[in-house]
Amino acid sequence: MKTSAEKIACLTAYDASFARLEDEAGVDFLLVGDSLGMVLQGSDTTLKVTMADMIYHTRLVSAVTTRAIIVSDMPFMSYNTPAQALGNAGRLITEGGAQMVKLEGGSELTETIKLITQHGIPVCGHLGLTPQSIHKIGGYRVQARSNEAAKKLKEDAVALQQAGAECLVLECVPAALAADITRALEIPVIGIGAGTDCDGQVLVVYDMLGITARQPKFSKNFLTGKESVADALRTYVEDVKNKTFPAAIHTYD
Ligand code: KIV
Hints:
Elements: E1 8-12, H1 16-25, E2 29-32, H2 36-39, H3 51-62, E3 69-73, H4 82-96, E4 100-104, H5 110-118, E5 123-128, H6 134-137, H7 147-163, E6 167-171, H8 175-184, E7 189-192, E8 200-203, H9 205-208, H10 229-241
Parallel strand pairs: 1-2, 1-8, 2-3, 3-4, 4-5, 5-6, 6-7, 7-8
């Protein structure tokens, strides 16, 4: 899809009902995100999500998905060493039914990603705003606005690709930086609050249906004016594919 310049439409999914609707709507990549800690469990961070939670929700999604790729988040503290990461990534595949795992972090994950991918498990990286580091970052805000931080983020992106990652999520970074990284990488870059020029877009499904209390700037309520959730999901896929979402108002400088 990157090669043929077809935009990749991604959404989070945490259960069978949403997974079925999203799969039928043409969503390409269902992310069983650890955002479930916030939108399902009511926590103000993703940090309390466990491997048991992730396996359970991945199983619900994989039970009904026939078309989309299922990507499952590795939760906080589940990939502290390469060996621990390999064991837990394997559980998301064998017990949960995921087809790819996602990890937050940069070049420090090189050995971990090499080991996981050498064992046949595809990996998606996640850079920019990495919610599992919230206490280090100090808040949910746009990342890599300085030249130095932008340079480091791009180096990290290249390191993840070289280590074997097959996809990269970029969260809340300036649009120009995301565009530069997207051009520099061969693997698809999926943006969330990362401008219009990434290879694809991902949103938290509860945000784009207006269920969450506060709508992030980078999201949009696709249910407004629609007859059904299925209609809203189809509109999201169309808008990503025809590049009408995200618009300039959803991006950061
Ligand atoms: O957990 C999640 O939902 C995510 C997306 C915000 C990319 O990682």
